[in-house]
Write a structure and sequence with these properties.
Blueprint (H helix, E strand, L loop, with lengths): L11 H18 L7 E2 L1 H8 L3 H13 L3 E4 L3 E4 L4 H25 L2 H18 L4 H18 L3 H21 L5 H17 L3 H12 L3 H18 L1
Antiparallel strand pairs: 1-3, 2-3
Length: 231
Amino acid sequence: MSDIGSDRTDGRQNRADQLRVLIEEDIASGRLPPGSRLEESTLAERFNVSRTPVREALAQLASAGLVEMRPRQGAVVATLSLEDIVEMFEVMANLESLCAELCARRMSAADHAALLALHRQCEEVIDSGDTDAYYEANRRFHEAIYAGSHNRHLEEMTRSLRNRVAAYRRIQLRHPGRLRASWKEHDAIVQAILAGEAERARDLTKGHIAIQGDTFTDFMALLRVSRLNVA
């Protein structure tokens, strides 16, 4: 059981914020997939708090679009329609490509070293075929690109939208050969960033994220299978 402290003080809102972050991480990591019920009592027991900060955290997540409040069901992790997914990936591709463009212009030597280290970590887990391990390494890699833009507002916007589509980005990695293909795309992006080629970094990243052509067809097939398994 996690414990974020007693809620008998004036720090209730701070606890609600902490809970929001923890639940959001569970959603983004796939530990809470789309459609999962979020019981206030269960979450309160898990984090050793009363139901009040849990309720406030769920309301924050609902405002961000990560959680839906359904009649007679309460809070559930949001399930996106196909139209929502396609539109969000379209926006995501543009936000991440802007991050990469700014990385090529603004990253320091220390930023470069950190990005390369994360890039190598992604490669290390490919041969294992562990999609979950690659997804986690991949998430850290992309987080470094958001941070490397050195634009706090862009970083926050990109991370927020990524968390909303995280479960669907994970689905893409299940396609045979996708882990290696993903890493090769990363490699081209990293080389462009290190060389300071802002336009190339932007274009490569946009292609890496966008759902288009055969990628879209493959994604749709995987999405149908995933939803059948959840149903």
